[in-house]
């Protein structure tokens, strides 16, 4: 089975991040026209654009603050002027912060996680779902986390934001499914990225011992799941929360 996204336009938010750049490459390799969203790291976005175009693809840069509705709408107008449509939206961007216990965690960190995990997805839906409804086609894929099920100490702001995102996605899947738009989430475990490869930190035995597969996943494992959900092979999957974590968490029935 081969995944062919030719003729599809895919937006990846946070595309310059450790995971985002792999998501973008994978979608582009399957033939999608890529929209590389960034907020501040224009230099990295340009590198990804050049990489996609060198491989024979087409790519567009799109700057926006995804926690600001007007900025997202401006980004939408910029994208639609170039590509006329967006078939696939991958919501990957998230605000980074220092994790600590609830009693020490700054209230602002909870607000930032709500804005980047929940409101980003509200704004993306408002911006791109209407034209998906018109065309009776769309794929919305959110990057959640295994932390949403683990609920471990010092994860409270992140978990609160991602669990809010989960609720939003499940409702959205029910609301727009009749238009043949799928809405799904991929939940990575503690994934190996380029930063780990550069720093030699691929192995974390204390984490791996609790993973049934006894290893950490690769960023490409996450990208493979996202690319599948973006394809026509996944046309009858919606409302799903899919852990890609080697069995570290297992949703129950």
From TrEMBL:
One Pfam match: adh_short_C2
Q: What is this protein called?
A: Short-chain dehydrogenase
**Entry's Gene Ontology BP terms:** bile acid metabolic process
Q: Which residues cross the membrane?
A: none
Family as reported in the entry's similarity comment: Belongs to the short-chain dehydrogenases/reductases (SDR) family.
- Give GO terms: molecular function aspect only: oxidoreductase activity
Q: Which Gene3D superfamilies does the record match to this protein?
A: NAD(P)-binding Rossmann-like Domain
Q: From which domain of life does this come?
A: Bacteria
Keywords associated with the record: Oxidoreductase
**The species this protein was found in:** Paenibacillus contaminans
């Amino acid at each position: 089975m081969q995944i062919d996204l030719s003729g599809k336009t895919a937006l990846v938010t946070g595309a310059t991040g450790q995971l985002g750049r792999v998501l973008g490459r994978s979608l582009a390799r399957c033939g999608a026209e890529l929209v590389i969203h960034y907020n501040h790291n224009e230099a990295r976005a340009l590198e990804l654009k050049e990489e996609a175009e060198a491989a024979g693809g087409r790519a567009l840069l799109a700057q926006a603050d995804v926690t600001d509705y007007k900025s997202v709408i401006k980004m939408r107008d910029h994208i639609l002027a170039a590509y006329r449509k967006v078939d696939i939206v991958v919501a990957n961007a998230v605000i980074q912060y220092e994790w600590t216990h609830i009693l020490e965690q700054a209230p602002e960190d909870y607000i930032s996680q709500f804005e980047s995990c929940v409101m980003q997805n509200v704004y993306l839906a408002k911006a791109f779902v209407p034209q998906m409804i018109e065309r009776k086609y769309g794929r919305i894929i959110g990057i959640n986390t295994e932390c949403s099920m683990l609920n471990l100490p010092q994860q409270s702001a992140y978990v609160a934001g991602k669990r809010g995102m989960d609720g939003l996605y499940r409702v959205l899947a029910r609301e727009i499914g009749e238009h043949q738009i799928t809405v799904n989430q991929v939940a990575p475990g503690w994934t190996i990225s380029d930063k780990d490869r550069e720093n030699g930190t691929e192995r974390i035995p204390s984490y791996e011992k609790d993973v049934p597969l006894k290893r950490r996943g690769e960023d490409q494992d996450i990208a493979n799941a996202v690319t599948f959900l973006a394809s026509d092979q996944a046309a009858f999957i919606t409302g799903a929360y899919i852990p890609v974590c080697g069995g570290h968490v297992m949703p129950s029935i």
